[in-house]
Prior knowledge:
The structure holds 2 protein chains of 2 kinds.
Chain A: E1 4-7, E2 10-13, E3 19-25, E4 31-37, E5 43-50, E6 53-57, E7 64-70, E8 73-78, E9 87-94, E10 102-103, E11 107-111
Parallel strand pairs in A: 2-11
Antiparallel strand pairs in A: 1-3, 3-8, 4-5, 4-9, 5-6, 7-8, 9-10, 9-11
Chain B: E1 4-7, E2 10-14, E3 19-25, E4 33-38, E5 45-50, E6 56-59, E7 62-67, E8 72-77, E9 86-92, E10 102-103, E11 107-112
Parallel strand pairs in B: 2-11
Antiparallel strand pairs in B: 1-3, 3-8, 4-5, 4-9, 6-7, 7-8, 9-10, 9-11
Amino acid sequence: DTAVSQTPKYLVTQMGNDKSIKCEQNLGHDTMYWYKQDSKKFLKIMFSYNNKELIINETVPNRFSPKSPDKAHLNLHINSLELGDSAVYFCASSLSGPDTQYFGPGTRLTVL
Amino acid sequence: QQQVKQSPQSLIVQKGGISIINCAYENTAFDYFPWYQQFPGKGPALLIAIRPDVSEKKEGRFTISFNKSAKQFSLHIMDSQPGDSATYFCAAKEETSGSRLTFGEGTQLTVNP
């Protein structure tokens, strides 16, 4: 039983392209997140949605646009990809009350 | 500004030894301190967490020690095993920030057989 799933697991693309990463959770959580993990493994939150409403929007380029069609899904669309966007992107989910965040397996994005 | 500082960056321990990872925070409003464990190619997973109303929490071989006055907390792994080899992240959260977790920089733990 997959709790938080992401697709694709690997994404290799050229600079300037537009790509999307999908995330789904079947835990019944109402809050979902996107994190970026750089080459030094530092984890930084990018966005958070609660009941489809954006509640955290860190200083992220406008090229990154999250979309939450429903509470169980949070997708990340990236326009005009740059070399510096290469990283592992993690989706996570939680209930807004309790504190445990459950992470997906990650999507390794490589921009050539 | 890094609000949660973690050390060491990497740690090598012999099987059966004690692994100790330390974290220090600045924001006194933080009121929840989890530790996450991440294996290569996987997402982080909650290992153990503590709130500032207690000074220690133990779950099996894993113990969190919390020092509120020093604004420090640490993870102790007793009887370290090769299967514990992973990256460990401390984190902190304040209730008023909603669900925002601030992570430390991570510690790469290697337990040699």
